[in-house]
TrEMBL record:
The gene is LOC117142641. It holds the Pfam family HMG_box. Keywords: DNA-binding, Nucleus. Residues 51-119, 156-223 form the HMG box domain. This is Transcription factor A, mitochondrial isoform X2. It comes from Drosophila mauritiana (Fruit fly).
Length: 257
């Protein structure tokens, strides 16, 4: 069965689209500051970046030859560059490969020495922090992969909350001004939501409850289908736990005995 929902009567499609846009912004703190380059794990715990591994002979060859190939073929694509350089590496003379291999071995020895000195400066606490950060990255990657997999399998989308519905409607009724940043508009709109009476909020809450009920039915049907198809990893854990067997009730006869 396919469940369809409407949002705020005839303007549902438009507001639904706006909800998708404001959902991530309302869920997180909004900032207009430029993106900061990501730090290494070591830098995140207050350490200087660890020594970098040297390039292998093949990647040294790529580094040397890529500018020459791009200069000779300005319109060449990245895929074609990699394909051509890979072929050129296979056909490269032995003397060139020996030179690159010697450079790699020299830099590898330097790297091992620098890495040994670097590791010796780490405290046990810093090692533990770095280990935890690595695990956090692994966990985050697994969550991203699971979200992608869930989307590909067509999981029903959870409806927006009453607050997000209000934010979406305000995008239409009182849009952001020309000289107003989104952060300023969002703060003003959030303050307006807090001033609404319970009856005014109830309009948005009714719509949210209505769609949530449809969502619960749809997600239940979808999860049953996923279990039948063997996609257990995308089903909420609580739905995989069988309820405990009811305890047998004692009869009056057994009490008398």
């Amino acid at each position: 069965m396919i469940y369809t929902t409407t949002l705020m009567s005839s303007r549902g499609g438009l507001i639904g689209s706006l909800i998708n846009k404001v959902r991530p912004l309302a869920a997180a703190s909004i900032s207009n500051t430029p993106a900061v380059p990501s730090k290494t794990l070591e830098e995140q715990v207050g350490l200087p970046p660890r020594p970098k591994k040297p390039l292998t002979p093949y990647f040294r060859f790529m580094r040397e030859q890529r500018p020459k190939l791009k200069a000779a073929n300005p319109q060449i694509t990245t895929v074609e560059v990699v394909r051509q350089l890979s072929k050129n590496w296979s056909d490269a003379d032995a003397q060139l490969k020996e030179r690159l291999q010697a450079e790699f071995k020299r830099d590898q020895q330097i790297y091992v020495e620098e890495r040994t000195k670097y590791d010796a400066t780490l405290t046990e606490e810093q090692r533990a922090e770095i280990k935890q950060l690595k695990q956090d990255l692994v966990d985050a990657k697994e969550r991203r992969q699971l979200r992608k997999r869930v989307k590909e399998l067509g999981r029903p989308k959870k409806p927006a909350s009453a607050f997000l519905r209000f934010i979406a409607s305000e995008r239409i009724n009182t849009p952001q001004g020309d000289k107003q940043t989104y952060r300023e508009w969002h703060q003003k709109t959030t303050a307006k939501w807090t001033r609404l009476s319970d009856s005014e909020k109830e309009v948005y809450m009714q719509e949210s409850r209505k769609e949530m009920e449809l969502y619960r039915k749809a997600i239940s049907v979808w999860e049953e289908k996923m279990i039948r198809l063997g996609h257990i990893d995308v089903v909420r854990h609580g739905n995989l736990i069988d309820p405990p067997e009811p305890k047998p009730r004692k009869t009056l006869a057994s009490k008398d005995i």
